[in-house]
Amino acid sequence: GELPLYYNSPDKGLLDVTNLFLAVPDQILSPDILLLRFLKIDLFIVIHILLFYSLGFWGLILFQKKFSLSFISFLLLFFFFNFNGHIVAHLAVGHLMWANYFLISLFLYLIFELFDKKIGWEWVSKISFLMLIIIFSGGYHFYVWCLFFLGILLLINDQKLMIFLSIIFSILINFHRFLPAILFSKN
């Protein structure tokens, strides 16, 4: 019932690196962890993955509507997205932060908006908010990969200012997750 600011575990695990709870960028801090107070861990894991899967499926539906995909095309996209053995293996061994994979469909949907129309602050806020969700749910690696992708787009796309602002704002809005790790690394 308390926020643990230090790990006090008898097994080593992360204690070889740090015992500071917030210095681990893969730590899941999304609002759904409040369910842990009421659910067993096994059930929480299933609900957490289903929540992210639902968001990812919603992203696929947005793709289907945006590009007017036929049923067969959507079925192929669905199978490629859902039956990725690499992701299934990570989730199967307990890497819960890999549930962020399902948010990539929403990220790519927003990226395709770059090519459709002139974007503005609304697009920057959507990307920044999605990156906030990714970081809060322990998806540090996915966050970095999305930033790299935005950096490449910054070099090749015409809407450089909005892409640059989305990178800057997503870093600023997520700095609270990087600061403990930065402070720990100075010790």
Protein architecture, described:
The chain is an all-alpha fold. The chain is built from eight helices and no strands. It has helices at 41-67, 71-82, 85-92, 104-116, 121-136, 140-156, 160-173, 175-185. Helix 1 (41-67) packs parallel to helix 4 (104-116), helix 4 (104-116) runs antiparallel to helix 5 (121-136) and helix 6 (140-156) runs antiparallel to helix 7 (160-173). It is globular.
Order of helices and strands: HHHHHHHH
Structural class designation: mainly alpha
Shape: globular
Distance between the termini: 29 Å
Tally of alpha and pi helices: 8
Helix content: 55-70%
Kindly estimate the percentage of residues that lie in beta strands according to DSSP. Answer: under 5%
Spans of at least 5 consecutive residues with low confidence: none
Total number of strands: 0
Mean pLDDT: 86
Largest sheet: number of strands, sense, barrel closure: none
Rg from C-alpha positions?
Answer: 18 Å
Compact description:
The chain is mostly helical and 187 residues long.
SSE diagram, text form:
Elements (H helix, E strand, L loop, with lengths): L40 H27 L3 H12 L2 H8 L11 H13 L4 H16 L3 H17 L3 H14 L1 H11 L2
List keywords for this structure.
single chain, 63% helix, 187 residues, mainly alpha, 8 helices, 0% strand
